[in-house]
Amino acid sequence: MDTTTYRGGVSYRVIGLIVASLLVLAGTAVPAIPTAAANEVATQPRVVGGQEADSAEFGFVASVLSTPRYRQSGAYQAQYCAASLTSPTTLVTAAHCLVDQQTGERLRPRDILIAFGSDLRSPGLRVIGVEDFAIHPGYRVKTAENDIAVLYLAQPVPDFPTIELAQGSDVATYDAPGTAAQVAGWGNSRARGNRFLPELQVGNVRVFPRASCGRGKKYDINGVVFRGFSKREADPRTMLCAAGANPAGAIIDACQGDSGGPLTAGVGDARRLIGVVSWGQQCASRLPGVYTRISAETNFLINAGVLAAQPPILAPDIEVLTPSATSVRVRLVAPQDGTRVDAFAVTATDEATGEVYTCSAAPRANRRSATCDIEGLPVGGSLRVEAISGNQAGSSPVSRPITVAR
Ligand code: ARG
């Protein structure tokens, strides 16, 4: 694959196709067409309470090294973040691994190297340059929103396993509260003090409920009562909280140096990347670790070329307002089903005459709602309003019809 990334432009052809498909009431997929594409294009530290990783299961985890430090003192000293291999040339990591947290300046691709192999001290470590990277345009240093980026390798690594990203139908299972998940990294293995192990560590954690990741609710794991982050601290829409406690009550968490690394759920072929290590308060405290929620970053991941769009799973929710005798305004909201929505299409059928009226709308970047107006309606009578949403891969099922008497 090339190293160009694509910023999603809504294609009016897509909307057209969606309208057409709704008109014929085909609930099946619109043929995939490419969207109008436009080009777009770190610190020393090191899972607390983890164990050595099984390389067959975690071979997709790579370390991110500082180039000058690598040249001076080797990979073990140069490692400061981690990343997950999603194809032979692409990795997903945290945006904050690529942006100077003080100045907000981006690193250059040549400032970093990616190393494959679980032991940072092994002579067999494979160290590869980075050709380019794409940082989420909505990444904010201050709030750590959208802390995600994609790295493009200078050479492919076909002999390392890759990890699939959670998307669509995976999400309901994998993001559910209490799901068993694993965090992996070379970060600090001590809650107090420092101990950086050369071998990749894996910690068993659980996905917290959203209420404990932005609404402050407590959560109990094995008798350990964790506090939740407040609304001002964490946003459960785009962040996922996780932590673990073993039966003896010892807390398991990511720590400094684990950033950018994976949070996965599922085993073997069913393993999916559900989060990226982003931030925390201390390590292995009574507060969970915070991860970038993969299922909320579908737009960016599709634009960056690491995820193929899937048709929306759920029909949009619709609300119909009647601002005048001859028009209706339809408000559309796409449920958070882990898929991307580029456009909505609405049909309104006059129940007396069978006449069909349509409108369509595109949500603004990173939004899941939009409105559109249908004008020039005959005065009086009743209308049956239905809608679908869609993207380049296809369209959602048709929503439940709403009948409006006018
Ligand atoms: N921001 C940290 C890093 O750069 C990751 C911290 C994760 N902390 C935690 N307690 N889960 O490595």
Short description:
With 406 residues, this protein is mainly β. It has helices spanning 12-23, 55-58, 67-73, 75-78, 169-174, 298-303, and strands spanning 5-8, 37-40, 51-52, 61-66, 79-87, 90-93, 112-116, 126-135, 149-153, 164-165, 180-185, 201-207, 219-221, 224-226, 239-245, 251-252, 262-265, 272-279, 289-293, 317-324, 327-333, 343-350, 356-361, 369-374, 382-391, 394-395, 402-405. The strands form six sheets. It has a six-stranded antiparallel barrel.
Question: What are its keywords?
Answer:
six-stranded antiparallel beta barrel, 2 domains, disordered N terminus, 27 strands, Immunoglobulin-like, 6 helices
Tell me what the structure shows.
- The chain has 406 residues and is mainly beta.
- The protein folds into 2 domains: 299 residues, Thrombin, subunit H (Beta Barrel); 89 residues, Sandwich (Immunoglobulin-like).
- The chain is elongated and about 80 Å long.
- The site of arginine has 13 residues, from strand 18.
Cα-atom radius of gyration: 23 Å
Provide the domain count.
Answer: 2
CATH architecture tag of the largest domain: Beta Barrel
The major beta sheet can be summarized as: 6 strands, antiparallel, barrel
CATH superfamily grouping of the largest domain: Trypsin-like serine proteases
Report helical residue fraction.
under 10%
Class inferred from helices and paired strands: mainly beta
Order of adjacent strands in the largest pleated sheet = 11-12-15-19-18-17
| Amino- and carboxy-terminal Cα gap | 54 Å
Characterize the overall form: elongated
Whole-number average pLDDT? 88
Number of helices: 6
Low-confidence stretches: 1-46
For the secondary structure, the number of strands is: 27
